[in-house]
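[Meeting: bench + compute handoff]

Bench side (C.D.) handed over the final construct sequence. Compute side (W.E.) agreed to return the predicted structure before the next meeting so the bench team could plan truncations. Sequence as handed over:
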Amino acid sequence: MRGANVVISKFTATTPLLFAIGMCAPALATQHPVNNAIVVVSPDAKVRAELSVADGVLSYRVTADGKPVLGASKLGIQTDDVELGQDVTLGAVRTRKINEQYRFFGAHATAISRANEAVIPAQSHGESYFVDMHVANDGVGVRLRLPAKLGRKVQADRSTWALEGDPAMWVDKLDFGYESPYHSATLKQLGTGMFGFPLTARVGELYVTLTEAMVKDYGDLAVKLDADSALEGQLYADPKGWTTDDPVTQPWRVTIIARNLTDLVNTTLVQDLNPPADPQLIHADWIKPGRSAWQWLAIGDPREEEQKQWVDWTSQLGFEYYLIDEGWAKWSDSWGAIASASAYGKTENVKIWIWVHSREVRDPQARKEFFRKAVEAGVVGVKIDFPPACDREVSNWYYDVAKDAAVAHLLVDFHGANKPSGMDRTWPNVLTREGVRGHEYQITRYRRLLQPDHDVILPFTRYIAGPADYTPTVFTPKELQGNTWGHELAQAVIFTSPFLCFGGHPQEYLANPARDVLTAIPPVWDETRVLNGSEPGKMVAEARRSGDQWFIAALNGADATSLDIPLDFLGSGKWKSSQLRDAKGKPDAWDREDGAVTGADHIKLDLSPRDGFVGWIRR
C-alpha cells in the first residue's frame, strides 16, 4: 500500500474526483490481491475508515476518537443480476492527499477540504470495478465506480449504514419533494417506512449526519431499517433500475462526524466531494448571493399592475432581488411585462427572478429557448418548480439545467426539489433549492401548521447538506399561528440560503420596528457558532458574523427555556447593540433594547414556547 502522504495535484473543473486513476486498474485485483483490512485515516488521525471483506461481503467500518460510529456497513450495486459487493477480491491500493480551499456561500466564506483518499480495485464474480474512500476530519465518503459496459442494467443499490447502538435520531419520512416534517426518534423506533436524507443521529458523544454527495447519473437514495437495524439504501424513484452504456459512478455514501454542533453546521464534506467549478464560474461577477422580496406567500399570484410597486418596496428594503412567482405567464403580454419590470428594476437597483414549471424546461431546446427569452427580458434568475422524483434521468436533468443556466448567466433556485448533494460547488450559479418543509406549511389559507420541533431540528439535519429555500419571516399576526415575531425574524438569520427569499409582505417589513435589523441580515456568512444550550428538537441559538457585524438568533421549540449567552467572542472594544425580545404575552410586539455591549457582557433570555430572539451587534 502506498503511503497516504502521496500528493496528487488538484483536479480541473471538468475532472470528477478520482477519475484521474485509469479505468484499467481493476486488473490489479487479480494480480495483487489484498487479504487484510484497508485502513484510511483522516489528516488529524481522529477519524478512521476500515474497508474489508468478510465471507466475501464488502463492508466498511468507521470510528472517531477511537470509538465506533458505524459497524460493518455494506457497499454494493446489483447489475445484470450480479451482486458487486459479494464474492469480492480487493487489489493494491492507491492513495493521495487532498488539500483544497474554495469560496463557499453558507455558514462561512471559505471551505477548506483536507482529506486522505484511497482507490482500491475490486472484482466480484469476474467483474472489475473500483472502491473509493475519502476520509476527512469531518467524516467519511465511500462509493463504487463501475467501468462502461454496453447495455449494463443497474438494478439495485446495496449501501447500508450500521449505526452503533440505538441512538437518538432526527429524521424525515421520504417525500419525493423532500417536504416532510422532521421529528425525533431512536433508530429502532423508525419502523418500516422509508426516510429521506439527510438525517442526524447522536452516537455516543458525537453528532453523525448521513446523506449522499454528487447524485449525478444515478437515482436518488432513501433508506429504511433492515432486519439487522442497519439503514438500507433504496432507489425509490428507480424501482426497476436503468440501462446504460456509460460508466456507473455511485454517489458518495457520506457519514459526517462532529464533536459539537458548531462543527456540525460548519461541515462542507458534501460540497468537498464534488468537483470544483470552472474558473470562469469561480470568478464570475454575476453570481451574487442576495435577498429577495416575493409575493406568493403574502398575496398569491402576482398582479401585473402592481409590479412597479413591488420593485419599489424591494428597493426600499435594500434587497437585491425580487422574485415574480407563478402566475406571471397568464398576463396578456407576459414577456413584455417581465421586461418592463426588469427595466424599471434597473433604475431602482433591483434585479428580477421569475418562476417556471419544470415541465417547460425539461426538453433541452425548450429550456435554452426559455432561458434566452428570460435573459432578453432582463431576468437574472429562475426558480424552477415541481421537478419529478429524482430518478437517474432527473438527476442528470438538474446538472443540465445548471449548465445551461450558467451559459446564459442565470442564477437558479430549484423548488420542490430533492435534497442537495453538493452541486453548488461545481455550479455556484445554483444558489439554493427547496427540498425542505418551509414556511409554505405555516399558512392559514391552506390550513397548514408546522409542529414546534421542526424548525429547531432543521439546522442540524437538512441544512447540513446545503442551503434551503425556507422563505422565512412573516409578521402578519394571523399567520403566526403560535410563533412570535422573534421566532420569525430568527428564521432569516439561522436558515441559510444564498438566495434569501423572504416570505412576508414588504409593507409589513417596512412598517415593523425591527425594519433596520431585518434589512441588515445578509444572505451568507463569514463565521457561524452554535451557542451553548442548543439541542436538536428543543432549541437552537447561533452567533453569525458578516464582516464586522454579528447577529445572535434563537429559535425555541415546544418548551420554555432560559439562556445565558456570553459575548466573549466579540473580543475587545465597545459595540452597538440592538436586542429584540418578544413582548411578554404578545406574539406580534417587540421588547426592544438599544445600547452598547462589550465582550464582557452577557445576553440573558427567557424563551417561551415557539419564542425567538435576534440581537444585532455592530461597530
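W.E. noted at the follow-up: The CA atoms of residues 151 and 245 lie 5 Å apart. C.D. will use this when planning the next construct.
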